[in-house]
Amino acid sequence: MNTDPHNHSVDLVIIGGGIAGLWTLAEARASGINAILFEKADLGCGQTIASQGIIHGGSKYALAAKMTKAGNVIGEMPKRWKNAIGGKGDVLLNDIKTLAQHQYLVPTNHTDTKLLSFLGSKTMASRTKTITHKHLPDAYKAIGLDNSIYQLNEIVLDIGTVLTSFLNQYQAFMYQVEVNADDIGPREKNQYSIKTPAGIINTQHILLAAGEGYEHLNIQAPAMQKRPLQMVMAKGDLPPIFAHFVGRSNKPILTVTSHASNGKTVWYMGGNLAEEGVDKSASTLIDEARHHLNQMMPSVDTDQLSFGTFHVNRAEPAMKGLVRPDDAFIQNNNNIIVGWPTKLALAPRFAEKVVNEVHATSLQLIGTIEPVPVMLQSLPRPGIAKYPWHDL
User: Fold this and answer.
1) pTM value surpassing 0.90
2) Which helix (H) or strand (E) holds 208?
3) Which domains does the chain have, with CATH numbers?
4) Fewer CB within 10 Å, N side or C side of the chain?
């Protein structure tokens, strides 16, 4: 046991308190790795709190009327998340709020008939279920849909409650600490040293899971790409819609999730609207969103809604042509691991890769029996990031 009050050793320091870092913290400690987490601001600030909370099952990636590698990789993730929500496994999220048991795929007048045939095929039988107009949920009747839709194996989560669950369970091992380049000492005797306001932390491994927020550390790392979005928010007396509205493209025209805010409902909108609207003014993009809503949801009076937009970058390993990576990614360079889950849903897969890498490259683990030292207990704890629509 380390008795130096200003010097403490662990197996893994995680830098970044988004979903990737949090899931890894839980998975690592469950596997016997003495892991702690540093977050400079609030848990989830950045990509995690800006996500729509959809645990993708791969159906969205089949809009070209064929299954893709990305679709197959992510296909197992809803089961992993549902196990955690159901209290099964090493990561437990049985106290979080599920916003919807299913995301839906809604065809428009421009949807390719080849895609519709594929969605109803045996290949997609385990991922989709056709819901005829007669059996539409009330919320979808309320927006004026007049055709069949497809129920997807994709739950939608309240991300704020996910962050709160991790904080409640692992608060003793997470600290509000900003790590700068000169805080990380060179590797000596198989360990790095990290300066904190409370003292020195020695660690065999460092995980950079801070999305785009690690570049200032000047650490050799794989090239990163940023795929930006400008999300659109509409707030009012709206029914709870969770849907991908699809046309001819292999990407949804609009992806909508619904979130409660001060007695109203916020429709949080991504898809092609958000991708292609990055460089547009907020007013121009909002006008486009109104146009889509008026066309695809004719019963909705958009004049009664309050609108806003929100910018976020999706940080990922660099890919040729700036395309979306197919899988969670990690790279280990002298026990400094850099990685991105690439999708919220892939956080369990990301954590599994990191934990396996730490076990494979550790000389000897300290383990989780070692108590949390007083020096760390004196550090502040991070809070929870605010939703993008907090001030809408």
Assistant:
1) yes
2) strand 199-208
3) 6-97+158-222+318-391 (3.50.50.60), 104-153+224-316 (3.30.9)
4) N
